[in-house]
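hey
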């Protein structure tokens, strides 16, 4: 039952102090701004969630003693990465990860993965949906925790036993026993699973993981300060327009199965054909090292990290290849790397990708559109600043050729009607050179709308009269 919140907060701060966490990231992370902002209404955390909070910030639970969950999922950045790098360094500082770090906010209502999941819109036919990670390979929030702890590219613990030993040596070992039983450390598997369940309790209970404190929330619930500017409102209308942007066709804003709404995802899997994040991109600040191997492809649902939908014979077409989970768009404006491989670095770039992937593939993929080798400058947001002399268009260059037929041609990418999200939609790409579906003004408005999805919004005392999203 709800007692009062202040003691809960004071307790967690005291516990963190006890743990001797005096370094920068833990110090700033001790009181997530939004948890503090949630104020007296925040319910006290259960003992399990209190353990989860200790675990989340404990760098001793990594092979090098230098990395906690919060190192990559920083509470100051909506539990996303604190930088714009595509993929992060691991506890072993010579190794980079293979995917961009997602925000951990609003993950608690993710349904379990199902190949034949119903769509929350109640209209679209069943398709793969749900699950944790970009390929849904973790069944539950608790099971997910084992992946970063034991991944050599992330927290790099040699074994479950090493993790359990570190918990046993920690300042919160007694609290752990209180939550999970005095004999919990007698059984390594049981204790390791308890670490996962503690994190799940934290991510579920702690309001800082789902604060609903954005301007969008004030707007949707008709609260003071929630008036959208004309640009934001135009962006919202566009976001829902089936024929033009179709954004909410996948970034669904209605109620999901848990009754929560406005998460901006239907939890389905789609293949957008994101450009390969490798050294072929001129001036690429952070190519993914794994992509140096031309035979390596991260294909989402069909592997390599998920292993239950692999192509029957390597190199043959498989309808799951290239599919990644539709991400929630809450707090997306606080990110600096977008898509599963972090290849894009601004929202402007993302929306322009949707708009011109088919009409101007030379902006995104190695290509020589004129075929004459003459240099031609692309727009400032393009991934390829100029064309690649002599290259034929290498569209969908982050998928093997056999799998490229899976790439989505729904609006706005192609000509398909909004709402058709079956595996083979049968719709057409937009023709190269055709007029893109969105105007630059519409793109600017959409980006303004995405900006209202950031938590921690404080209505200004006086409404601004100048700025990008005002008029
Ligand atoms: C080195 C950086 C790093 C660390 C440390 C890290 N993660 Fe992650 N996390 C990632 C990346 C990258 C992904 C996406 C992985 C994928 O899709 O395969 C991810 C995904 C997740 C997801 C899935 C979110 C979703 O949308 O499905 C959860 C939950 C999560 N991490 C929790 C944790 C927890 C809890 C810890 C600490 C035990 C942790 N992470 C430590 C990088 C990290
Ligand atoms: C066909 C379904 C679909 C449609 C329509 C769609 N998206 Fe997406 N969106 C996705 C998927 C899937 C991803 C993840 C792709 C990946 O990781 O490679 C994504 C990723 C994003 C991201 C990056 C988020 C992140 O954290 O990296 C943004 C921003 C975004 N979409 C905005 C939009 C906007 C704005 C529109 C409308 C113009 C739109 N999307 C239309 C499916 C869709």
């Amino acid at each position: 039952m709800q007692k009062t919140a202040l003691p809960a907060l004071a307790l967690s701060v005291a516990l963190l102090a006890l743990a001797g966490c005096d370094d920068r990231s833990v110090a700033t992370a001790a009181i997530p701004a939004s948890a503090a902002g949630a104020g007296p209404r925040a319910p006290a955390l259960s003992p399990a969630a209190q353990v989860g909070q200790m675990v989340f910030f404990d760098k001793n639970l990594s092979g090098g003693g230098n990395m906690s969950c919060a190192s990559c999922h920083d509470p100051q950045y909506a539990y996303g990465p604190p930088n714009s790098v595509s993929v992060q360094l691991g506890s072993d500082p010579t190794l980079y990860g293979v995917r961009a770090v997602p925000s951990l906010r609003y993950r608690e209502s993710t349904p379990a993965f199902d190949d034949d999941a119903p769509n929350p819109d109640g209209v679209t036919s069943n398709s793969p949906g749900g699950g944790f990670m970009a390929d849904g390979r973790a069944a539950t929030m608790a099971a997910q925790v084992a992946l970063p702890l034991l991944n050599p590219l992330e927290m790099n613990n040699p074994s479950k036993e090493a993790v359990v030993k570190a918990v046993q040596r920690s300042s919160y070992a007694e609290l752990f026993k209180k939550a999970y039983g005095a004999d919990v450390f007698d059984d390594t598997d049981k204790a390791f699973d308890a670490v996962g369940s503690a994190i799940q309790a934290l991510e579920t209970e702690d309001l800082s993981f789902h604060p609903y404190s954005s301007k969008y929330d004030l707007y949707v619930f008709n609260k003071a300060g929630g008036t959208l500017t004309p640009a934001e409102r135009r962006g919202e209308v566009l976001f829902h327009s089936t024929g033009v942007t179709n954004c909410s066709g996948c970034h669904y804003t209605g109620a999901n199965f848990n009754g929560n709404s406005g998460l901006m995802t239907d939890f389905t899997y789609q293949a957008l054909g994101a450009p390969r994040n490798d050294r072929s991109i001129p001036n690429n600040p952070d190519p993914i090292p794994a992509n140096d191997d031309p035979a390596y492809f991260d294909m989402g649902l069909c592997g390599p990290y998920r292993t239950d939908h692999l192509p029957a014979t390597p190199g043959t077409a498989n309808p799951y290849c290239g599919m990644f989970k539709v991400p929630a768009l809450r707090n997306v404006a606080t990110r600096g790397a977008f898509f599963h491989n972090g290849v894009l670095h601004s929202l402007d770039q993302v929306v322009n990708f949707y708009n011109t992937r088919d009409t101007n593939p030379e902006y995104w993929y190695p290509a020589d559109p004129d075929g004459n080798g003459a240099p031609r400058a692309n727009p400032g947001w393009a991934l390829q600043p100029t064309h690649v002399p002599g290259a034929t268009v290498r569209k969908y260059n982050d998928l093997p050729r056999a799998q490229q037929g899976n790439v989505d041609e729904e609006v706005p990418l192609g000509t398909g009607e909004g709402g058709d999200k079956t595996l083979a939609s049968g719709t057409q790409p937009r023709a190269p050179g055709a007029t893109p579906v969105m105007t630059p003004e519409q793109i600017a408005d959409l980006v303004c709308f995405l900006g209202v999805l950031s938590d921690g919004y404080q209505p200004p005392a006086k409404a601004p009269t100048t700025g990008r999203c005002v008029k």
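Residues 188-205 form the longest helix (18 residues). Strands lie at 114-117, 127-129, 269-270, 324-325.
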